[in-house]
Each structure stands twice: as structure tokens, then as C-alpha cells.
Structure prediction request, 553 residues.
Amino acid sequence: MTDDVNLIPAPLTVERGESAPARVALDERTTLDAGPGTGSTARWLRAALGAATGLPLADGPGPYAIRLRISEEVAREHGPEGYRLSTRGPADGSAGGAAVVIEGGGPAGVFWGAQTLRQLLGPEAYRKAPVADGPWELPAVTVQDGPRFGWRGLLLDVSRHFLPKDDVLRQLDLLAAHKLNVFHFHLTDDQGWRIEIKRHPRLTEVGAWRARTKWGHRASPLWTETPYGGFYTQDDIREIVAYAAERHITVVPEIDLPGHAQAAIAAYPELGNTDVVDTASLTVWDTWGINPNVLAPTEAVLRFYEGVFEEVLDLFPSTFVHVGGDECPKDQWKASPAAQARIKELGVGDEDGLQSWFIRHFDRWLAARGRRLIGWDEILEGGLAEGAAVSSWRGYAGGIAAAEAGHDVVMCPEQQVYLDHRQAPGEDEPMPIGYVRTLEDVYRFEPVPPGLSPEAAAHILGTQANVWTEVMENRSRVDYQVFPRLAAFAEVAWSALPAPEARDYTGFARRMDTHYRRLDALGVDYRPPAGPHPRQRRPGVLGRPLEGTPPIV
Prediction:
């Protein structure tokens, strides 16, 4: 990669034009020449670059145009998300009579090429308003690129701490800037139900609100006594999904079952195991950890959640729908005469079989509607439904087992890509929980486990970083935990990197010097390379484990 082309994620190739001018300028003569299928990218360019540069970027062809095209040749070479970007200038005939040419294998490829164009213009191109007059110069290069994985995702948990709609839209912009294309929207949990379901209004009337909220990790004694909560209306969800689609990001909703269900049970007590628990006394859970209250294995519960999913499918066009399936304690089922009778009636053997029965039912239900079920790796317990895919979070083992059995897998092991975990071992980290995972650790993460057979490796759809928000009470805290590590993760997910031990972290860190300036322009409160930002430090118990309590893992 040339010295002034500090792209993240790293592209396949960058070539400097020998006969072209060293720099190509965009100015008031620059137009947008958008071919068929590239309209969403043209709209995004006009909004993003127009705001930063002050250039009008009018429609039309010409020698100073930014030309957007879909190319069958690029599709053959680099796939539908691949692109070829030429910034050879209007004097160079190879650019086809335009200043910039972006050819994508499909609409998404054109968009990712536009993201690269923005990086080439420099950090000031990320401002929301012009800070200086031009010229807006580009290095004269040809970039050829395409992603390693088709699933390049980020999970955002809005159940533990709610992010307003505008903050979610901002997160989508940040994903797009890093060429990530899946937004896993964790909408329900014990601590809050965040999506409006019209046929079950108490899910948000009751289930979206905690009487108080914890401040800090689960060992912290600190609370705020004011009610806490929030939810997205169906119109909010439609706006989020449409905004993501304009950026070629798929939103995958998660509705947790049969565990992580206390918020739903608090709203509708009949969903719980009423023969062993006074479910009418349950409230939305106000602390963190694994909750014992799980759904009852009844036909009425199935019908209730089918109604939920009917509304969810109307809002989310994604092929995959996530049903959770993780951390489902079996104690209530073991103690419940009704659950034990259900095990015998269904012939599923034991409580693991009962969980599998839940998952298999919704696998069939979703498949009948043209969708696919995905769940956390606990859905392997008791046998996995034929068409189900697995999010492997407890390490590589679940993903390996699922892939070798012919199931599709998204790799997101907590030991490597849980971005709520601390970024350094020092006690001045804001919330020193989990494993220490530095920027370099994330950069050396490898989504495909070594030794996996070629047939099984083909079932690795891609990878995902997960952001659980127990200790992230607002947008700034999310920024701090996610960045800059998301930049390293994006390169792992997109780029054709060598084996982890052979990766050029020094070169990546050098390119990050430029990328930090992009993040600054975007207003991201990232963790500085030198250590915690003063705004993020916490005094006393809030900023470190209680005396005698190890960091939570």
C-alpha cells in the first residue's frame, strides 16, 4: 500500500498510476454520474461528501465526474461486494473520461468503493460541515478489493442499556464506514423489551421499564433509583431498517427464548412456569447475570411468540432471525410438574430436549415463511434443527461442532471479540471486566479455526463483534469500548490477512494514525492509544472491582 493511502480495512491491491498525475482534485466542476442500480450510493455520496466539502455534486456525466457503475467483470473477480476504484483523473483515458470511476460487482460493491473514496479524500471528508475551502485532492491510484466474508457484523445490546433511535442510526453509519454489513439488534432480554408489538402492548408498557437501574458491573452496589427504560416504535424500526438498507447493511433482529425472558414474563406472567414460581410478582430484572426465569413449555407460549415473530417479520426483511437460545437454566423445568409432564408427552428425553423442542419449533415456523433461524451455540444442546445456523460465542468449540455437522456458523467467541471486555489490564480502565483484549489482540483474531476441514470451513458465514451494554450507559461509553477495536475487527472480517502470527500489526498501527483522525472528525469517543480518556475514568468502586472481587469473566 502506498504511503499516503492509509485505508482501513486494507484492500486487496493498490496500484499507483505511472502516467497519471500524482493527485486528482474534486472541485465545483465535479458531478455524480450514477448508472443503474447505484442510486443509493449517489444519494449517500451527495449527503456525506457534499456536507464535508461544500461541493454541489450535481447529476450528470463529464470529464470531472465521479462515475458509478455495476460491472459484471468486477462481480466475476471480486463478487457482488467487490469493487474497482480508479482515481486517475480526467486526463487519463483509462478512467473513461471521468475523474473517478467506481465499479462494483453489485450495488453494495459500489457503496464500499464510495467508502474507500471518502477515506482517500482525508479525515476532513468525515466532517459534517466544511472546515476549509478545497481543493479536495485524491492520490491517483487504482484500488481493487472485495471482502473475505459475507457476514461482517456487530451486535448491539439495547436491552441492558437503551440507545435512542438517532444513536442507533449513528452506529449504522460507523458500521458502514468500516465496511461492516450486518447489524445484530439485540432487542429483548431480562432487563428490557425494546420493540413495540401491537398485539401484546404490555411487552413495552411494562417490559421496557425498570424501577431502578444498576450503575457499573454486577458486583457494584451502586444504583440509580429513577425508573429506566425505553423502546422503539414500529415506525422507529422501519426507519432503522431502511437507513441500514441504504448503507447495504442487513439488520438481524434477536428475540430471546426460552431464556433471558424475565421482561416478557413480567409483562405477561402466564408465559412463565407458574406452578413453581409466583410469576405475577416478577418485575423487569434490574441487575446483570443469568436469570432463572424461563418460558414455560406450553402451546400457549408458542402461540404468543408466533404472534411476536409475525410482527417482527413484517418489520425486518432479513433472511436470518435470531432467537437467542443461550443461558437457559433448566432448574425451573426440573422442578415443574407441568414441564416434566411435557417432556414425557413430547418424548424429548430431558430438559435439554425441551430446549431443543423450542428451537426446532421456531426453526420450522420461520422456514415455512422463507426465513432462517440462527441462535447462540447452546442451541446445539439436545440436537440442532436441520436448517438452523449458530452464533458461536463460548469459544470455537460450538462453531466447530456445528460446521462439521453441516450447519452455517458466525464466529463471535467471547475470548476474542466481546468488545465490552476491557482493553488493558490497568485499574484505570473504566470498567475492568472480562478478558483483556487489546487492539492488537483483536487484530490477530482468526475467525476460521485451524484444522477445520475444507467442507466445514465453507460453512463459516463470517464473523461478528458483540457489544453487551451492562457497563455502557450511554453513547460515549459504547464508543469507548467499541473503538478503536472495531477498526481491527473490520480488517479481520474484510481483508485477506495472513495467519495471525504473520500479520503486520506495525503497519496496521501506522494506518491507524490516520484513522484516529477520521474517528475524531466523526465525533467518536474512542479509547486513545496512550490509555483511558479522562472523561471515561471512574473513581472508586465504579471504576474497578470491589475489594476481593476479581474482574468479571
In short: The first helix runs from residue 39 to 53. The CA atoms of residues 255 and 323 lie 5 Å apart. The mean pLDDT is 92. The chain has 18 helices and 23 strands.
